[in-house]
Amino acid sequence: MSRYLGGGFTAPQQVYLRTGLAFFIAIIAFSRCIRWRTVLRISAREWCVVIGRTVLLYVVGTTLFAKAAGMTAVSDISFIAALPLVAALGMLLRSVRVSAVRIVFVGGSAVGVAILSGFGGNASSSLNYGNLLALVAMVAISLSYLGRDLHDGTLNNHELTALTLGVGAVGVALTSLLQRDGLPHVPADASAVMLWAAIGIGGLLSVLNVFLINYSFERVDPVLSGNMLTVECVWGLLFGLIFFGQVPTWSGIIGGALIVLCALALNMLDGRATETVTEPDGDDPVTAQQPELALAAAEQSPPVLRMYLPDGRDEPRTQRAEELAASHSWIGAWDPASGQGQRSAAS
Prior knowledge:
- The chain is mainly alpha-helical.
- Helices cover about 70% and strands about 0% of the residues.
- The protein contains 17 helices and no strands.
- It has helices at about 1-5, 10-30, 35-40, 45-70, 75-80, 85-90, 100-115, 125-145, 155-180, 190-220, 220-230, 230-245, 250-275, 285-290, 290-295, 300-310, 320-335.
- The longest helix has 28 residues, at about 190-220.
- The protein is flat, with a radius of gyration of 26 Å.
- The termini are far apart.
């Protein structure tokens, strides 16, 4: 899409056009899920996180990626997008576990990019420059993905999508203004209908992209989510061949295969590590799965604990009995489905 739109618009123009359209689509599609009063009352820190992630995602990442798409092969930049940069940056920033095996696989992916980009001297300087722009763009986009955990939970994914698209459109438009691109106009030798139709399709895809990225990185480990994006290189290879007749070179195939194999190995490694995680010790399912309930024992007042202690109150009270009573008292106090008759004024 970026390569096709590059025939009629500059990189910033095509980005802010489809992102601005995506913003209006998101407002209409998510109208029932957007709480405007909540959006207007978010903290200054939350605004900084939204703006920072948006600058990385659109002003730097998407704009440079769109520019790189017009300078190098679609298959090349798609292979670069397959780099496990989220895992590498997560380890560098200490947000995920660092291990020797992960370092080996991330390093192998970097070697694959070097082979794909032709840093050995077989590729032209313009091709190397385009690949370098794509690499810088993917670093910025990956940092934006990792920033999903920085939100304080005030905004839902629909609101985050709309804000990201709106701030992104304004930011890229200002970038285009500073570069003196002027107003977008369709060249005489291009089809206006096809270009504006491509802008519309790009807007729809942008809404889906931003929403699903926020949704997935909220629920799935960043390393696993980032490595799932390696399938982009497969589609990029097919699209480059089908739509643009770009046959990948041997260096591109070898480097891309190395990138994908290393990314798949990381996925398998993280999957096995997740399966071997054991549940906490303990014979009570409530306190074993919800340790914060057991920790609440020290915060409960004696009347509340006595409500949920066993009937034999003359028997010695153990720490285990008090922890059980604390967990049950929290459930009774917070669960709307529990009977009102079981509560006292103290609870």
